[in-house]
Amino acid sequence: MRSLKFIALCAALASLAAGGAKAATLDDVKAKGHLQCGINTGLPGFAFTDNRGNWQGFDVAYCEALAAAIFGKARGNVKYTNLTGKTRFPALASGEVDVLSRNTTWTYSRDTDLKQTFVGVNYYDGQGFIVPKSLGVGSALELNGASVCIQTGTTTELNLAGYFRDNNMDYEPVPIETNAEAIKLYQAGRCDAYTTDASGLAATKAAFDSPGDHVVLPEIISKEPLGPLVRHGDDEWADIARWVLNALIIAEEKGITRRNVKRMARRSGDDAEANRMFGNEGSFHEMLRLPKTWARDAIAENGNYGEIFEKYIGRNTDLGLERGVNALWTQGGILYAPPFR
Amino acid sequence: MKTVQQQYEVGRHPDLPPPLVERGVVKWVRDNFFSDATSIVLTAVALYFLYKVVPPFVEWAFVDAVWNADHRNECRARGEGACWAVLRARIAQFTYGYYPAHLYWRVNTAFVLLFVALAPLLFEHVPGRRYLLWFSLAYPVLAFFLLWGGLGLEPVESAKFGGFLLTIVIGVTGIVGSLPLGILLALGRRSRLLIVHTISMVFIEFVRGVPLITLLFIASTLLNYFLPPGTYFDLLLRVLIMVTLFASAYLAEVIRGGLAGIPKGQFEAADSLGLGYWKSMRLIILPQALHISIPNIVNTFISLYKDTTLVVIVGLADPLGISRATLADSKWQGLSTEIYIAIAVFFFVSCFAMSRYSLYLEKKLHTGH
Amino acid sequence: MTTATAIFPNPLRWALGLWRDQKHRGTIIQIMALVALLLFIGIIIRNTAINLQALGLEIGYDFLTEPANYDINQHLIDYNSLSSHLRATAVGVINTALVSVCGIILATVIGLFAGILRLSKNWLVNRIMYAYVEFGRNVPVLLQILLFHALIIHTLPHPRASLSPMDGVFLSNRGFYVPQPVLEPAAWAILAALVIAAALAWWFAGHAKRVQENTGRHYPVFTINAALIIGLPLLAFFLAGRPIGLDFPQLKGFNYQGGMVLRPEFTALWFALSFYAGAYIAELVRAGILAINRGQTEAAYSLGLKPNWTMRLVILPQAMRVMVPPLISQYLGLIKDSSLAIVIGYMDIVATIGGISLNQTGRALECMSITLFIYLSISLGVSTVMNWYNRRVSLVER
Predict the structure, then answer these.
(1) What is the mean pLDDT of each run of 10 residues along chain B (369 residues)?
(2) Do B50 and B91 belong to one domain?
(3) Among A57, B262, C198, C339, which is disulfide-ready with C350 (CB 3.0 to 4.6 Å)?
(4) DSSP assignments along B120-181, one per residue
């Protein structure tokens, strides 16, 4: 009992001290001179190394944009920590990384129980199945009794259990740590089906020797809104992370690209929203305590949302993903940034 | 004395060379392969096993292998064998991780100097051993600045460390850091002071009772909770701390074994010289105990060195971690067997060499008595 | 004045005096060590409390009774995704125990054979064993697990083309399927027969030993006892009207249904652990045998014992005494290495409570503490038992 009281007392004292010290992640980032960004240990299209060892990908591009918004350019100002499904939340919670950009699904309990703040969605995904064509399976509902490969430590695992339970079907889960290993097992025939986010399935299928021999089943069994997240408790930092993402989306809406952003930022004509974003009208940047050029720098790094999408995971890449629901709301998708005003 | 003229049958005279079946290759083959029924069966089984395993492997690994390609599909198009091209493309990452390419010389220098620092510790007849020992003592500091930078050298962050560089950094730091701690723990466990003894024993038994992987998980998920708010170490540092604690418990037991091997007379002799506890330990007991424990210290190092592969599970870029990142590149997907075999060969060669050295030491120690 | 200094001596000198006195110095060091330890623990608890408070997290083990929501492929007790985290932990513990026990048995067998063959006069055989021992000891066990797994997955055929060496036995990259015995009520007779046979065998062994000690007569104990233990239950099986049926695995849909299965993950882990530990045990066996004085062999031969009897009755029992302590640490090592199961997805303790449960609930502190506690209990339990055995077989010095 006494030790409990002692702990409580310490905790109370500490929360007083911590209240002042914790608030400003932005100041910490500026002080250490770089943004520490948590990314995957390797996921095609989203985070991977080139032959020279540089990290690239859809998730990495967001880190670069955020770093550019703070420092003017990403080069030299962003460092990466590779996190597994297990280490990602503790790493964010303990302050080891400032932001987590690692295809993480926004869920209720991660938001509330784990005390994370999701700043938005940069990819609307859903869980699906891929099977060899030779099995003759046309629907996920025909998978009764199948062996299914899954990546552990993800929401996919829970969705899978729920889906088979709800449909009164049996299956043999084959859990595995990494995407690469799971694909290997699927190809070797250890499992009949591989389940992961639809984006991952596309990447997987594209990398096969003969993609035509495999089909992605039509069922999408879950909603997987993937996005960057930060710790609870620093709303200012969460706002910065959120509005960098929104700026990338707004830029696409307005046709501001990597190439024309410098010109557009100088003189955005009659577009009041763009003028506000680029600091030509009002001083909105002060509300975020960022430099005036933050939006321009973020967009200049890898281009707008659409450009990043096309560069790493779009139709002309190995993954070959369609925009689908991730198209702008003006183009039939659900990607929608709140107005900048 | 009457000499007996003995008659020999043809071919039985003792001065004749042994018959063909009793000498040379024939005899060797017969003695070694067909000496009795069991031996014949064993030989047959062994030959069948070799026939089943060796030719297909050689065919896969050498005859049909592809050494030069830019892409997995290019390998597959050229043959069914191993696609070693992936190693060619990524050899720098497997060696140095993400260490900046223009600074490789610093890693190489540190690596070469490691052997200079080790030489006087491992071999007794090294010219200028006395001065080299001072260098050995200074080496950890030197290596730290070479690898991480500082003192005018361009700093390199821990996250850039990877590949075999990381394996060696973790292994060497673990063993060097755990030596003082291990000695203290060993002395503590032998101590007559109850509390000191209990603390040492509980620590040693705790660390030896749990798998290294759980300690690494503590490093990756919990250690930051234990630190004062606002401070945190990077993952490599946390892993190094845990590996050092882990190794110190094992080393403590090795050194305790060494201490147990010191004859009682030595302790009594030290006492009779009027030396206090620390002086007698430092001057008389420990030098002898450490000397006879060296083979086992080397063995502890070998197992620690092999255990460094576990850091991949917490997301560090050791050779297995690099292989994960490599396999995530769609250009090289599915080539895990090649990569695993290459890593296995690397570990085999280095561990085998070290275990030979430890055997050599053991032999030398035995002849000394 | 002088009396005052005698009663209240210079405190510094007094402390120095205490320090110089060996007995007191011990006490001081002890107290200092204790204070340092308590301070250290206190600081850690304080930091943890502060950090958790700052994050708004609380420590609590309530989540253990909540549904785990994930499935586990190999569960020897009832388990489904609605079972609690606690039950998932139990499944993990059983899986760890299973692979450890199987691994220890196989590793001992491999080690014994390899160690003896390593001393064989057959050049080819002892070279192969040498290669095995060196490979096994010098390649990290994690890599061996990955290699064995890759080997099983890639070389064995797909279930539809599985190898079937016997009726009802199927070998594929989904696992090794064998018929499962189904016990009917009358099966108790067989169990009873087995118990009776074991009791008889125990008695006979004792009897034979007494007879041999008194008269020198030797019974073929092993053969007779083996016949007893196999024969009596077999007899009971037929007398009771064959109460054990067999559930044959059958290919239904994607996989075999029914029967018993050794999954590739289990098999790979089992083999890799045994292969790795076996190499070390082989060296222990070899060293143990070599440590026995050559005179022992010669003495046994001169008594007229045959070579394999010499090995069994004279050399091995003595070698065992040398081998047991290092053997204990090999076994403990194997149990701890089984935690690497996580890399190939075998659902042991680290994969269930220390893995998926930790991931899904985010309760790192709680899950890790449970994992550590379980491993510590296992390790301490095993070493207690083995130390007891070790004391029993050790030489009683006179």
Answers:
(1) 68 72 72 75 87 88 85 81 87 90 91 89 79 87 89 84 92 90 91 88 91 90 80 84 93 89 84 83 85 85 91 88 80 82 93 88 68
(2) no
(3) C339
(4) HHH-S--TTHHHHHHHHHHHHHHHHHHHH-BTTBPP--GGGB-HHHHHHHHHHHHHHHHHHH
Do residue B340 and residue C146 have CB atoms under 8 angstroms apart? yes
Could you tell me if A150 and A208 lie in one domain?
yes
From A85, A173, A192, residue closest to C73, measured CB to CB: A173
Q: Which of B159, B232, B325 sits opposite A95 (nearest CB)?
A: B232
The four Cα atoms B23, B29, B34, B36 give a dihedral, to 10 degrees, of 50
Q: Which percentage of chain B shows pLDDT scores above 90?
A: 25
pLDDT tens for residues A70-102?
Answer: 999 998 899 998 888 778 888 888 888 999 998
Cβ pair B213:C340 closer than 8 A = yes
The C-alpha of B329 sits at a distance from chain A's nearest C-alpha, in angstroms, of 6
Token pair 């959120």: residue: A242
Question: Which residues of chain C from 200 to 229 reach within 8 Å of chain B, CB to CB?
Answer: none
Q: What is the ipTM of this complex?
A: 0.85
B314/A21 CB distance under 8 A: no
Total domains, chain B: 2
Instruction: Work out the number of other CB atoms within 10 angstroms of the CB of residue C56.
Output: 15
Residues of B in contact with A95 (CB under 8 A): 224, 230, 232
For A150, which residue in chain C has the nearest alpha carbon? Answer: C345
The total number of structural domains in chain A stands at 2
Run of H or E including C229 = helix C221-239
Question: Looking at the structure, do residues A143 and A203 belong to the same domain, yes or no?
Answer: yes
Q: Do A44 and A80 reside in the same domain of the chain?
A: yes
Long-range contacts of C85-89 (CB under 8 A, 24+ apart): C85/C353, C85/C357, C85/C361, C88/C352, C88/C353, C88/C356, C88/C357, C89/C64, C89/C349, C89/C352, C89/C353, C89/C357, C89/C370, C89/C374
User: Are C311 and C253 part of one and the same domain?
Assistant: yes
Nearest residue in B to C20, CA atom: B276
CB crowding A97-123: b at 16 or more within 10 Å, else e = bbbbbbbbbbbeebeeebbbbbbbbbb
By Cβ distance, the residue of B98, B314, B325 closest to A87 is B314
Considering the entire predicted model, what is its pTM?
0.82
A82 vs B contacts (CB less than 8 Å): 159, 315-317, 321, 325
Identify whether residues B300 and B350 lie together within a single domain. Answer: yes
Whether residue A15 and residue C57 make contact (CB cut-off 8 A), yes or no, is no
Angle at B210 between CA B207 and CA B216, to 5 degrees: 85
- Within the 226-265 window of chain B, which residues sit less than 8 Å (CB to CB) from chain A? 229-230, 232, 234-235
Domain stops at, among C55, C76, C97: C55
Backbone φ/ψ region at C255: left (φ over 0), alpha (ψ -120 to 50), beta: beta
Q: Are residues C293 and C347 in the same domain?
A: yes
Q: Indicate if C90 and C19 belong to the same structural domain.
A: no
The answer to whether residues A135 and A118 belong to one domain is: no
The CATH number of residue B291's host domain is 1.10.3720.10
CATH number, domain containing residue A272: 3.40.190.10
Which structural domain range is residue A304 located in?
A: 25-124+225-330
Range of the domain at C18: 2-55
* Chain B residue numbers touching C141 (CB-CB < 8 A): 306
Is the minimum CB–CB distance between A21 and chain B shorter than 8 Å? yes
Does any domain span residue B51? yes
pLDDT digits (tens, 9 = 90+) for B218-253: 888 888 788 887 777 788 899 999 999 999 999 999
| pLDDT tens sequence across A108-122 | 888 888 888 999 999
Q: Indicate if A149 and A112 belong to the same structural domain.
A: no
